[in-house]
Fold:
Amino acid sequence: MLNALALQTLTMSHTKDKTYRLAWIIAVPLMLCLLLSGCAGVKKLSIFKEEVPRQELNLEKPTPLQLEQLRWIIITSENANEVFAKLEEQGIDPVLFGLTDKDFELLSKNFARIRNQLKITNDLLEQYKEYYEPSEEKDEKSK
Structure:
């Protein structure tokens, strides 16, 4: 019985060796074929040979903001009682949000900076649009 078990073990290991050898015999040429044929289909790039027309941006100008109208009431030490009385007559709760004259200047400067940044952004948008969608007049001048 021991001889039969040893013979079976030898036969199985011999079969495993044949299987691995057969797998290598098939796998190596197949991998070489794939490796060589993968590189055979490379085409030359024509980046600098052909001019590709620029795509249009199709960007619309942003619509101007429709802001709510504010009502500014200037309150001084002389007219404070009168202003509060008028507000109470109109049914408005007289709450005071105050700015000093220097704070109002800072608020004005901040709004000027915001307007300036919006102008820069709009100009940049115009430049992009001009680059991607040049006007016909400039095309004729360049020719």
